[in-house]
Amino acid sequence: METAIVAGGCFWCTEAVFRDVIGVTEVESGYIGGTTENPTYKEVCTGATGHAEGVRLTYDPAVISYAQILDVFLGTHDPTQLNRQGNDVGTQYRSAIFPLDDAQRAEAEAAIVRAGEANTAPVVTTIEGPATWYPAEDYHQEYWEGEGQRNPYCMAVIPPKLMKLRKSFQNAVKSEKA
Predict the structure, then answer these.
(1) From which domain of life does this come (predicted)?
(2) Kind plus residue range of the DSSP H or E element containing 133
(3) Which residues face 66 on adjacent strands?
(4) Distance between alpha carbon 11 and the CA centroid of its chain, in Å?
(5) pLDDT over 90 for what percent of the chain?
(6) Catalytic status, residue 13
(7) For 150, how many CA atoms within 13 A lie in the half-sphere containing its CB?
(8) Is the entire prediction scored with pTM above 0.90?
């Protein structure tokens, strides 16, 4: 099993997408890329800590490659919006990849080039790190599966991302039985 860390706006949205991706066995929401140790959600939301809302994925590279993970990531959020995703504005919602080694860094650079070819606007996704990962509070984990389906924001934002996943990355979607 291998690990990938990405930040693409609201972590509830990114987590919901990757829970439906084949080969991904664990998705944890958290904070990365800032200066405050053990930040809280309230602190990160101010934008003052420098952290991004991100997800840490555990995946099976025999099922899905890191390059494919990055293509799904860059294809299911808008990598051309600087420090925002839709109505979520601030550096905590930036689009960023946090490679864990030189090989992941090279794959991240290649993925950004591919995303640039697929978008008409410039891709602003950054490659950051190394940086310390901080898991988000328990109530943020598996948010879409519970509270998120009663949250108007999530109901407006997550289903279109899941539809984009199913349309653009059909071979990467878990079957309904999984």
Answers:
(1) Bacteria
(2) strand 133-135
(3) none
(4) 6
(5) 96
(6) no
(7) 2
(8) yes
The pair phi, psi for residue 85, each rounded to 5°, is -140, 110
Task: Please give the Cα distance from 161 to 36 (Å, whole number).
Answer: 30
- The letter for the amino acid at 51 is H
3-class DSSP assignment, residue 32: strand
Measured in degrees and rounded to the nearest 5, phi and psi for residue 19 equal -65, -20
pLDDT mean across residues, the chain: 95
pLDDT score recorded for residue 65: 98
CA separation for the pair 97, 103 (Å, rounded): 13
- Answer left, alpha or beta for residue 160, where phi above 0 means left and psi between -120 and 50 means alpha: alpha
- pLDDT tens digits along 128-178: 999 999 999 999 999 999 999 999 999 999 999 999 999 999 999 997 644
The two tokens of residue 105 are 């860094």
Residue 115's nearest CA partner among 82, 83, 67, 62 is: 67
Measured CA to CA, the distance from residue 10 to residue 158 in angstroms comes to 10
Residue of 50, 37, 122 whose CA lies nearest to 79:
122
One-letter amino acid at 80 equals T
Give residue for tokens 């990757």: 18
Helices (H), the chain: 11-18, 41-45, 66-76, 102-118, 152-168
